[in-house]
Design brief:
This protein is mainly beta and 113 residues long. Helix content is 0%, strand content 50%. It starts with a strand and ends with a strand.
Length: 113
């Protein structure tokens, strides 16, 4: 079955960097658009970045120029490289596959000021 397992979160200071990983199984990511979402405490889940099957990417204005989504089809992995992190980036980050309703457990990112 479809599984998405996020990892790589942690606690960093403002201005720091993290690289999130999403290990996909049960399907080949090469056939799907992939996305990263995040949910901050008390807020709705929001779309952060997407990458389609042709490696065309999109990112939210709030992270543009700081977050980069990539994919490794051979390893069936999706990544989110985050630089110049800000306290407002604090959230649980989730990997998502297009046309699949399920969510992974997410990975917590905490940015201290």
């Amino acid at each position: 079955q479809v599984q998405l397992v996020e990892s790589g979160g942690g606690m960093v200071e403002s201005g720091g960097s993290l690289r999130l990983s999403c290990a996909a199984s049960g399907f080949a990511i090469t056939n799907y658009d992939m996305k990263w979402f995040r949910q901050a405490p008390g807020k709705e889940r929001e779309l952060v970045a997407t990458i389609d099957t042709e490696d065309i990417t999109w990112s939210a204005d709030s992270v543009k120029g700081r977050f980069t989504i990539t994919r490794d089809n051979a390893q069936n992995m999706v990544y989110l490289q985050m630089i110049r992190l800000k306290p407002e980036d604090t959230a649980v980050y989730y990997c998502k596959r297009r046309n699949y309703d399920g969510w992974g457990q997410g990975t917590q990112v905490t940015v201290s000021s």
